[in-house]
């Protein structure tokens, strides 16, 4: 019986209800792989950080911290199947994300990576982030939000105070990001296209979807995921115009909470396909 290792995310990276939902999607995916004949060992990101990692041909990786990713990195060159790869999880850290997407053709807001304790950027650079007098988004510069105050909107005269708040909490880098107007949608996908779903952020999954170009949304989401090397992913896109999606954020292995069963089935099927392909390649 083939063995897999399921690595559960550090709770600090799954604030509030996300902790339950992140655990649930990994549980559901593992259950479907067990039904296909796999034997699962469950461990945590904290165990991985401390260098304790069982040996297996397959790893389901929800780790988001740098330390765990570095511990897992040798697996990529050792022939194990790791979903998501630690390199792709690291690519989602904002300071890397901004660079990779900024160098691509993916529509992405103007963003400055800035030391939270440094003097403010030049006034012209700040004003360029809010040409229509919108607020500037300030987001922690490494992992995605651990708490609500990790992502805040501030007017130009509030930026200095907001940066000081990040400094006080020990967050050395922030992303200063342009506000993109229009409806925001949340999307979820699996890299080979066997799963993709989305809904309007304001109305929620059960509400009415905004009138946007779904084909362009899907193309944008999969292009960004490919650039970052993500296989299981989700994110946020704004539509300043119905046919003009702009990627706001993308992350590795989200919770898929509104459609967990379908997502888990698709992720398990994709992993099964990838393992089989690896055996025959």
Concise description?
Helix content is 36%, strand content 25%.
Please write the string of helix (H) and strand (E) elements: EHEHEHEHHEHEEHEEEHEEH
Radius of gyration: 19 Å
Q: Please bin the fraction of helical residues.
A: 25-40%
Major beta sheet, specifics? 4 strands, parallel
Our count of helices gives 9
Going by helix content, strand content and strand pairing, the class is: alpha/beta
Low-confidence stretches: none
Overall spatial form: globular
pLDDT averaged residue by residue: 92
Number of domains: 3
Tell me the β content.
15-25%
Please tally the β strands and state the result.
12
C-alpha end-to-end distance: 21 Å
Write out the strand line-up for the largest beta sheet, numbering strands in chain order: 2-1-3-4
Oligomer type: single chain
């Amino acid at each position: 019986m083939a063995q897999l290792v399921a690595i559960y995310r550090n709770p600090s990276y799954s604030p509030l209800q996300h902790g339950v939902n992140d655990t649930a999607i990994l549980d559901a995916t593992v259950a479907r792989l067990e039904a296909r004949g796999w034997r699962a060992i469950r461990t945590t990101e904290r165990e991985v950080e401390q260098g304790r990692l069982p040996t297996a041909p397959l790893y389901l990786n929800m780790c988001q911290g740098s330390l765990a990713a570095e511990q897992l990195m040798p697996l990529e060159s050792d022939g194990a199947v790791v979903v998501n790869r630690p390199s792709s999880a690291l690519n989602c850290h904002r300071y890397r994300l901004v660079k990779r997407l900024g160098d691509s053709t993916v529509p992405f807001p103007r963003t400055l990576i800035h030391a939270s304790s440094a003097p403010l950027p030049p006034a012209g650079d700040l004003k360029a982030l809010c040409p229509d007098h919108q607020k500037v988004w300030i987001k922690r510069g490494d992992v995605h939000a651990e708490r609500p105050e990790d992502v805040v909107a501030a007017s130009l005269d509030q930026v200095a105070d907001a940066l000081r708040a990040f400094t006080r909490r020990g967050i050395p880098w922030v992303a200063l990001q342009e506000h993109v107007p229009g409806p925001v949608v949340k999307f979820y996908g699996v890299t080979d296209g066997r799963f993709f779903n989305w809904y309007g952020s304001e109305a929620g999954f059960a509400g009415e979807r905004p009138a946007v170009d779904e084909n362009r949304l899907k193309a944008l989401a999969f292009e960004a995921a490919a650039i970052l090397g993500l296989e299981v992913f989700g994110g946020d896109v704004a539509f300043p115009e119905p046919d003009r999606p702009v990627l706001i954020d993308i992350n590795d292995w989200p919770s898929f909470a509104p459609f967990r069963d379908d997502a888990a089935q698709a992720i398990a099927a994709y992993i099964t396909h990838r393992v089989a392909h690896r055996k025959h390649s």
